[in-house]
Amino acid sequence: MAEHFPRYVDGGPAPAQDGATFRTFEPATRRHLADVPRCGPADVETAVAAARRAFDRGPWPRMAPDERAAVLRRIAERISAESGRLAELEVRDNGTTVRKALGADVPGARAAFAWSAWWAERLPTRLGRPGTTEGRSPHYLRWQPLGVVAAIVPWNLPLLLAAWRIAPAIAAGNTCVVKPASFTSLTALELVRLMHECGLPPGVVNVVTGPGGTTGDSLVRARGVDLVAFTGSDAVGESVRSGAAGAGVSTRLDLGGKSPNVVLADADLDRAAAGVAWSIFLHNGQVCMAGSRAVVHTDVYDGFVERIRRRAGALRLGDPLDPDTDLGPLVSRNQARTARHFTERGLGQGARLVCGGRMPEPGELPEGLDPGAYFLPTVLADVAPEDTVAQEEIFGPVLSVLRARDDADAVRVANASRYGLSAGVWSADAEHARTVAEALRAEQVWINDYRLVDLDPPPATDGPAGTAWDRVTNELDAYRSRQVVVDSTDGPPGLAPTPYHLLGSGLPPAVSRPRSTP
């Protein structure tokens, strides 16, 4: 029987104001999974008003960072305690495998809150000018929360990305209105329910659900929002940017990727093939950082293609709730058709089909599963840099393998993309790999690895942090604004006097200027 999920506004569950709902379905079976509120403009307005009150008059932004951190840690612990429920919802709602949900999505959501708590206690909220006494300087920087954040979460990693949008934002003292993708709303709703049970004050995090064209557009243009944070496709991101700009609201957009793995002539091909297969076939390639291009030195090209063919062919498609399943369905039949469309486009432009390239035939999947939502792991060889499959984000299990004559050509081919999100470099020589890595236009480059999943916990002390520390720092800074304060009541604080004499005769004589208290 289908479940009924409410929206969450001002600390409590509620239906849409007009009672409207929409259905969500399991991708693997097409069974009716849940009924979810179809929120309209009035629901969005109510949610934004609740977040605005919580920020302007509520306790959350005024709490000390360690007080907020304590709530975030309780949420992290509760996520672990509810891992089974959250994982099953994610599998049934999104189509990911239970192995990935339990091994990456739920632990990753927990890590988002644990890391945000850790950094909330350590990032400075005020910094005195060098050479002055900390905390007493009349010349200082201070950081403050932005206000109300509208967080629009995509369908590919609904629990994980909801957590990474919410946790840093509220750790910095903001309040949020979250809008999950319409057909993968359930884990975001469940997460916010758990958050309120952990002592989060009313109005700090609110959830509205519904189609992007109505609910999402209303949120982007809502009065009272200070920042729109969006993760998703380039096309929708441009629409969000335009809508928010029209409302005078800032945006933070995390869009697509077409990330390369560069396999050099001296690479360990077995290791490289394993890493590349992981980077593109995990979660059916429905990850913005998926390594959807392999740029391979011509001397090892054929050997690499054969190894990646064997690995792709060994992956087991099946019921996502079966722990032995490697790949479940894509998020929808439409997404599987998209993978097929791009594959056919690549073949039409001259690519060679190595394996896959189609939906499963009847009988190739266990009974009860929908073949129309599945797509076989696909490898296309002899792809040219200008081909569509080498340029466009597919968001499916489709790998394009391109040939490079030498290192310089590999860098040229890898950089021949409008994206620059991530990359991998594979070489037995670390110095050789670093030289190539530093020539790539990518925000993050892994050498002999591809870390799509990063579950390093925060350190128990102030010792060395794991590799997630930089991400959390950037996330928290994205949700804070900086202010410079210079108090010249008692004279310029270590600065040259303001040259008032450049206009008129300068400052009048000081008569009874108040003294500041230390």
From TrEMBL:
InterPro entries: Ald_DH/histidinol_DH (IPR016161), Ald_DH_C (IPR016163), Ald_DH_CS_CYS (IPR016160), Ald_DH_N (IPR016162), Aldehyde_DH_dom (IPR015590). It comes from Streptomyces griseoviridis. The keyword Membrane does not apply. GO terms for molecular function: oxidoreductase activity, acting on the aldehyde or oxo group of donors, NAD or NADP as acceptor. Keywords: Oxidoreductase. The keyword Oxidoreductase applies. PANTHER family: ALDEHYDE DEHYDROGENASE-RELATED (PTHR11699). This is Aldehyde dehydrogenase. SUPFAM superfamilies: ALDH-like. Belongs to the aldehyde dehydrogenase family. It holds the Pfam family Aldedh. Residues 485-518 are annotated as: Disordered. It comes from the Bacteria. Residues 18-456 form the Aldehyde dehydrogenase domain.
